[in-house]
Amino acid sequence: MEEELVQQSSSTWPPPPPFWQAFTPENIARIEKSRQQQAEREGVEDASNVRLHDLPRELRALQPPLEPADGEWRVFGDKYRLVDELPKLEDMQIRRLFPNPEDRDRDGKHFDRALILKRLAKSLLLNFLELMGLFAINPEAAQDKITDIRDMFINFHHLINEYRPHQARESLISMMQAQLDRTRAETNAIRDAKDKTERIMEGLGSLKFGDELVGDSTPQKDPWATQREVWASALADIS
Q1: pLDDT score at 2
Q2: How confident is the model at residue 89, as a pLDDT?
Q3: From CA 104, how far away is CA 110, in angstroms rounded?
């Protein structure tokens, strides 16, 4: 038993919660029937949006919980929010190493993220070298340098995350442009096939069938004229 608990606590993904056993066909049919009856009492057409109260213990897991009142919830120890916003560095108790969004364009200058990222990358390399020197000389004084490197990494990552909305827009534009180009290519292929078919039909219209040329306006000899002449001469001899 102890070995099993150790394996569960050390596994990457925990075992499924025990309430999955409540999702049986009988329980699902029971809660759907209860929702339908509640909807009829409340005069609601869509029974799926009806919330039931005082459910039996075996049916409680079949009803989704309400949205969190504060907009936050935890999954596997991580905190999530209904409104996905980038938290501020000050809220995370992290020292800011680049200007605030409110103060960036106050002087009319453009905020160059690439330049700030390059400066942070160079500062990280320099502080890492200084950290290695402190480990060799005075390891007890290295904690402040480790804190500085941590703040630099978090600022670096935070600045990249500020660029995520622009990256999402550019990715969407690229996807829509690719779809438009693909649609235009398919349309051009259909037009080429149509033109090729028309040329083939025009070529078939000029082919010869027997001794006649389809579409030729020159007068052709009547194929029954010889037979009529033969019958006419035969009748003349008889008479």
Answers
A1: 47
A2: 82
A3: 8
Q: What is the dihedral of CA 159, 162, 163, 167, to 10 degrees?
A: 140
**Longest CA pairwise span in the chain (Å):** 144
Half-sphere exposure of 99 (CA within 13 A, CB side): 14
**What is the model's pTM?**
0.48
Q: Locate 80 and state its tokens.
A: 């999530």
Query: Mean pLDDT for the chain?
Result: 79
Q: Do residues 94 and 155 make contact, with C-beta atoms less than 8 angstroms apart?
A: yes
User: Tokens for 146?
Assistant: 């480790």
CA end-to-end distance (rounded Å), the chain: 128
Nearest to 79 by CA among 153, 95, 87: 87
At 128 the pLDDT is 92
H-state helical runs in the chain: 2-10, 25-42, 113-137, 142-162, 164-205, 225-238
Tokens standing for residue 223: 């194929």
